[in-house]
DNA sequence: AAACACCAGCTAACCGTTTTGCTAGCATTC
DNA sequence: GAATGCTAGCAAAACGGTTAGCTGGTGTTT
C-alpha cells in the first residue's frame, strides 16, 4: 500500500506535513491540507499501525482475557467489551484462558509482546493478579474483572457476590423454606466463595444452616450441576429449595428436574445468582439475580482508558456493582410435603 | 523493556546474532547461543511485535468479523475461532459489524491499518465479499464464513442451508403435516434465502406449498420471532407445524407458545435449522439441524493459514458442510384437531 | 531600516526488529 | 606457501511512521 512518503511526494510536501494532517497535530495551511487530503484519497493511503506502534510505543490494542469463553456470561462480556473498546478507538484482542493458569501465563506473555495498551482480565491464577510489566518496565494498565484477591493494587470491577447470595437466600427463606441446598462454584474463586458465604451468612442470621450433604460443588458447569442436582434430590431427605451459584448451572439443574420427573416450583424451588442470556424466554422463569454486565464492562473500560492516559500514579480503584433480584416462577412457598 | 540491542550488548554479540537465535534462522555456535539465551533470560527480553510487524509486513493477527456478537451461534464461532487461531500461533482481533454495512466498512479499514494477516468474515454487505486490498496492494487473505454470494472468488466455508431446510421440512411432512408455516431469516442473506428455498422445494416435491400468510420474516431475532409466532398462531387457520430458520428464533417461538397457552408438540410442532448452545438442556428438546461449527471453524483456519502462506495464486475453495437432523420431542404426528 | 518574534513547513533522527551483503579466520588443495 | 572455498558473525540498511529542531519568509516594533 501507499506509504506516507508516497503521499508526501504526490502532494509535493514533506512527510512531516502529511503526518500533521493525518493526526491533526500541528497547523497546516488550508491549501496544503487540501493537497494532502487529495493525495491520501487518490492513493488510498492508511497509516501503518505497526510503524505507529513502534514509534509511539502504543498499539491501540486492548486485550480481553476471559476465563471461559464457552460460558454465556463471558460471551456477553465479550459482546459488551467489543463495543466499548471500539467506542474508545481501540481494537479488541481476545483470549480464552479456559480456567488454566498455564494458558493464562502464555497469554500474558503474548499480550506483552503485542504491547497491548491495556488488559481486561478475568483472573484464573492469583499470580496473574500481580501487575504485568510492559515494554517500558512499568506495569501494563490492567482492570481485573469479576474476580479478585484481597488487598489488590490493581483496578477492579466486581459484583457484590455476598449480597447476591444473601438476597436470593432471604427470598427463599421468606417463602418459608428452611431446608435449603446449594450448588456452589469453585471455592478458590471469589465468585464461588462469596456466593456460598453470602448464603451461609443469610441462613445463620435466621439461626439456620444447610445440612452438610446439601452443599455441593458444581464447578460453574452445566453438566456437573446436572449430576450433582440428581444426587442432591434423590437422597432420603432432599432440600425443598436450591440456591444455585450461577446461571449455567441453573440450566443443568432444570434439566435434572425434568429428567427426575420433578416439577418446578411445585416439588422444589430453584433460584440462582447470575443468569444466562436467552434463559429469560423459558418457562418457568428463573428467580435469580441479574448482573449489570454492560454497565460493568463500560466502567471497566472507563477505568482502563483513564489509567492508560494517566499512568500508574493514581490510586487503585475497586468498583463494586450491586446485583438485583428478579423474581420468576421457579419458587413456591414451602409446604409440608405429602408423601 | 529490554531491546534486542540490550541483549546483544549484554551477551557481547551483534543484534543479528540475537535475531538468529530468537528466530532459529541461521546457524549460531553453541557457545554464543548459550550466551544469548542467558542474556535473554536475565533481561527478560521478548521481541517487540510492533517492530517485527513493521519489518516483516506480517502482524501475526487474524481478524474475526461477526455479524452479530449477541447471537449465540456467533458466540460459539468466536469461541472456536479463538482456540484455532491460538493453535496456529496467531492472535485473534474481534469485531462485531452488528449487521450494519457501514460498521463493516469501518472495520475493514481498521483491519487494513492493523495489517492483519488474515480475515474470517461473516459478511453483511455484498461489497465486502470483494477482496480487501492490503498494505502491499494484493488482497488480504480472507475466508467468508456462513454466508456468501454466488460466483465467489474468495475462499468460503458454508453450511448447506437448502439441505438443512429440506431435511427438517421432510421430517415434518413425514409426520403427516401439510399445513406448515415458517419463520424466515432476512432473505437477502444466503442463510435466510437458502433455508426458505429448501423448505419450499421440499414441499413442492410433494405437491405442497405453504399458505401465503404462513410465511413470515423473523429477522433471525428472538423478539421478532416471538411476535411473528403470535400472529401466526392466532389467525383463523394456523399452521399445525412451524419450520423456524434459526435457533435464536426457535427460542422466541417456544416462549410465544407458552404465553399463548399452547403445548408443544401437542398443539403445534416446532422444528428449526440451527440451534443454540444450552438449549439442549431444555424440555421439550427441539427437533433441529445441528451445524458442525467447530469443524467449520477449524477448516476456515486451515484454509486461511494455507492462503496466507501460499498467496493468492491458488484457486478459491468453497467448502460446504452438511447439517444433521437431531430429533427431539418438539414434533408430533399430525392429527385432526378437535375443536 | 534594523532588530526581532513568529510560525509554516522541512530535514533528519529515531523506534526495534530483520536481513543482505561483507569480512575475516580457518581448512583444504595443489 | 599461495590460492581457494567455506562459514560464523558482524555492520548497516531498511521497514513506515513521529517529532525535535531548524530554516527562511513575513509582519511588527522601535
Describe the biggest sheet of chain A?
Answer: 6 strands, parallel
Question: What Rg of chain A, in angstroms, do the CA atoms define?
Answer: 26 Å
Q: Which CATH top level class of the largest domain in chain A fits?
A: Alpha Beta
- Sheet-strand content of chain A, in percent, reads 15-25%
The chain pair forming the largest interface, with residue counts per chain, is: A-B, 52 and 52 residues
Mean pLDDT of chain A comes to 91
> Low-confidence parts of chain A lasting 5 or more residues at pLDDT below 50?
none
Detailed description of the structure:
2 copies of one chain form a homodimer. Chain A is elongated, with a radius of gyration of 26 Å. Chain A has about 350 residues and is of the alpha/beta class. In chain A, strands 2-1-3-4-5-11 form a 6-stranded parallel beta sheet, sandwiched between helices. The first copy, chain A, is built from 11 helices and 12 strands. In chain A, helix 1 (about 5-10) crosses helix 3 and helix 7 packs parallel to helix 8. The longest helix of chain A has 18 residues, at about 295-310. The first copy, chain A, folds into 3 domains: about 5-45, lambda repressor-like DNA-binding domains (434 Repressor (Amino-terminal Domain)), CATH 1.10.260.40; about 55-160 and about 295-325, Response regulator (Rossmann fold), CATH 3.40.50.2300; about 160-290, 3-Layer(aba) Sandwich (Rossmann fold). Chain A binds a DNA duplex (30 and 30 nucleotides) through helix 2 and helix 4.
